[in-house]
Amino acid sequence: MLEINPPRKVYDVCIVGSGAGGGTAAKVLTEGGLNVVMLEAGPRLDPDRDFKEHMWPYQLPHRGVGVGGRLRGIGDEFMAPNGFWDIEGEPYTTAPGSSFRWFRSRIEGGRTNHWGRIALRFGPVDFRPHSTDGIGDDWPITYEELAPYYDKVESYIGVFGSKENVPNAPDGVFQPPPKPRCTETLIKKACDQLHITCIPSRLAILTKTLNGRDACHYCAQCGRGCRTASNFSSSQVMIPPAAATGRFTMIANAMAREIIVNDTGKAEAVSYIEKSTRTEQRVYARAVVVAGSACESARLLLNSRSTSFPNGMANSSGVVGRYLTDSVGSDLAGYFPQLEKMPIHNHDGVGGMHMYMPWWRLDKKNEFLRGYHIEFGGGRDMPGVGGFEYVCDEHEGYGVSLKQKCRSVYGTFIGFSGRGEMIPNENCYCDIDPEVKDKWGIPVLRFHWQWGENERKMAADMQQTFRSIIEAAGGTVIAGTRRHPQKAAAGESQALVQQPGGRISTGGAIIHELGTIRMGNNPKTSALNKNCQAHDVKNLFVADAAPFVSNPDKNPTLSIMALSWKTSEYLLDQAKKGEL
Amino acid sequence: MDSPSRRTILKSLTIGAAVGSVLRIIPLQAAEYAHHLIDDEKSGAQTAYSPKFFDPHQYKTLQALCETIIPADADSAGAIEAGAPEFIDLLTSENTDYQKTLGDGLKWLDSTCTTRYGKPWLDCTPKQQTEILDSIAYLKNAKQDKTLEDPVEFFSFLRNFTADGFFTSKIGIKYLGYKGNTFLTNFPGCPPVPGV
After folding, report:
1. CB of A466 closer than 8 Å to CB of A332
2. With a cut of 50, which residues of chain B have pLDDT below it?
3. Contact, B154 vs B102, CB < 8 A?
4. A265, B68, B145 from A304: Cα distances, Å
5. Residue A541 confidence class, pLDDT cut points 50, 70, 90
6. Nearest by CB: A58 against B32, B98, B170
7. How far apart are CA A524 and CA A413, in angstroms?
8. Does A482 lie at the interface with B, CB-CB under 8 angstroms?
9. Which residues of B touch A346 (CB under 8 A)?
10. Tens of pLDDT, residues A485-527
11. How far apart are the C-alpha atoms of A81 and A177, rounded to whole Å?
12. Which residues of B touch A475 (CB under 8 A)?
């Protein structure tokens, strides 16, 4: 008997993921006239319901640290919702001898709800690592090719900063930076003595009204989400204009499983698990943009096996999952006695540092290749659970003298975090674990990780630098707390605590993992061409940090958006020409 | 100026949508008012707390220990009024590691006091109470006497926990002089600080 199916709905583009890359693609593609469907693994974001901006710790029974005190640092109860170090039923594994941490956000907007808003352009040298020092590979694009897209992104999302002409740390389209806090004034003076460049930071936070979004109101809580959208998140700034075109459909709670190819070897659909019904569904599109975050995107391609693509889609080169890097991280904190004399005042500022140190030894011969920048924070922040551990352990005892000591040293600590460039190595990659599936039946990633010698030297150099800054500023280095385990360190200043042992972060912990579907001119050594279009599948694009050829010390989010914008304009152009 | 009512806020949200703002955001004044509402609603009347984990005797002991660690003084109330014991009890009821550290510690405290002074810690004289706490309040004591390792760990844990509870309370935050979590139209930067 003949079955008659209704004609299937075919969208112009299916975007997988709603974060920095997916959100940017949605805005550019819909505004360019295409019909777009987006799959998001988590729920829609409702700022009214989901944000805990301006709440005090005592307004939550667990004071922010969650059931059993298990939520600390990034991912505590105050943070914007649905960002996790661990997701129940959705594990990942690590190979023997490897440690890796993977922060995932299952929510509209993805990790842009949680990020530190640090918005640094990569510099000209960053696109040419091989030409510069003979190691690694050059990007197939130059800074000059990406610069107009940095301009577009900054002009649209709003970034504060200052024109400084620092070599390889290009200035952008900036709003005025906020004034420095006391802690920043103190450290800036020490850096001047040491000839370390210390300049206003560059964060995606508004200090002036922009496109209907009000300026920052200086509550220091960007990580909680911002009801006035004075900071950038994809959920509040990229998705709404896409939706306003009338050409945008979001399917939330949809976990992408694999990309389906047709018999001509082109992508024709994305299969996903509809979480509410636990059923497998398909959405059809003329082109697919993968933007699930570098490792999720690699996982999706590797799980998309077919007779045409036995090793996973767009993976004839075998590079998918390879070239995985994260930033080199190392932290140290100091105590600054002169800050005890600081008068009571509002120290909050924006939700992040007002000043930072870009890499200042570009022209010097160093003991390691590439460079790092320094983030720092501390002072009279909102008190939180864990903030008095150090002074309690140092002072010991009990009673009024302990209480007074806690008050006199409150606000006198400053933490430093180095964020450096890791060079890709053959021991760092992710592949599909042959044994383990998640609760949706989708095979999970297995991580392999080994820092290289260059990274260890860089982390040691960071420690020396931190020490010299702390001492030059009249402070003393504080050791880690003596008994208690390391908190999850990432992002916000409260989490700036000393690393144990080798003083280098765990792979993935800085949440700058990228490079797993890299771009290049040679289809044998790269998966994507210079337009982030798969060499093997011309209607497949990648728009997160997976295409990055290197991982410069600059935080990746701004570059994800610039590259996604460029990729999306290319896709639009191809669609208009009927090339897809 | 009268503060806007909840109705006005809701209205302003609707207007924001009506004039075609595609961003799901609220005007600054509405946000400010909404946050004040949160403050008022959440800091309302407190009802008596019934412990979820500790038995009545243990809970009384816990309260007394918390208050000893962070007592009331001329500048502020102490750990009990700040709600530290409630916070500790709640988290402990959900965490078996905390249950072991605090449960074992309280047991050690009472059995040691009973052996030494013939009564549980709570019923000891202030001098006896101080004497026993002084023996476990410093890491160096555990280094000299291995049998004190666990009790010293217990006290250190409780000291941190009490500080967490006190300094994240309304009372504790005021005591520290944290001034923030508010709306500023302009961030003034650093006031003059001697030596900075």
Report:
1. yes
2. 1-23, 35, 38, 40-45
3. yes
4. 12, 62, 62
5. very high
6. B170
7. 51
8. yes
9. 179-180, 182, 184, 188
10. 334 333 333 333 334 444 899 999 999 999 999 999 999 999 9
11. 28
12. none
Of the candidates A392, A121, A288, A236, the residue with the CA atom closest to the CA atom of residue B137? A392
Contact pairs from chain A to chain B, CB under 8 Å: 227
Residues of A whose CB is below 8 A from B25 = 47, 212-214, 227-229, 236
What is the DSSP code (8-state) at residue A424?
P
Q: Residue A580 has what pLDDT?
A: 84
Alpha carbon of A236 to those of A207, A217, A229, A230, B10: distances in Å? 17, 17, 6, 10, 19
What are the residues whose beta carbons fall under 8 Å from the beta carbon of A194, sequence distance 6 or more?
A: A468, A469, A472
State the nearest Cα–Cα gap between A401 and chain B, in angstroms: 9
3-state secondary structure of A48: helix
- Tokens linked to A285: 């599109």
Q: Which residues of A touch B184 (CB under 8 A)?
A: 217-219, 346, 348
Query: What is the spatial distance between Cα A433 and Cα A250, in angstroms, rounded to a whole number?
Result: 30
Buried b (16+ CB within 10 A) or exposed e, A345-367: bbbbbbbbbbbbbbbbebeeeee
Chain B nearest CA to A345, separation (Å): 6
Q: How many Å apart are CA A333 and CA A376, to the nearest integer?
A: 9
Overall average pLDDT of the A375-399 stretch: 96
Q: Kindly report the pTM of this predicted structure.
A: 0.92
Amino acid at B64: A
The tokens describing A152, both together, are 């577009």
Contact at CB, A180 and B189, closer than 8 angstroms: yes
The answer to whether residues A314 and A519 touch, using CB atoms and an 8 Å cutoff, is no
Q: Please, are residues A199 and A31 in contact by the beta-carbon 8 Å criterion?
A: no
CA distance B65 to chain A (A): 10
For residues A308-332, give the mean pLDDT: 97
Whether the per-residue pLDDT at A193 is higher than 90: the answer is yes
Which among A212, A387, A396 is the nearest to B21, CB-wise?
Answer: A212
Note which residues in 43-62 of chain A have CB less than 8 A from chain B.
47, 53-59, 61-62
For B154, nearest residue in chain A (alpha carbons): A483
Q: Tell me phi and psi for residue A283, to 5 degrees.
A: -125, 135
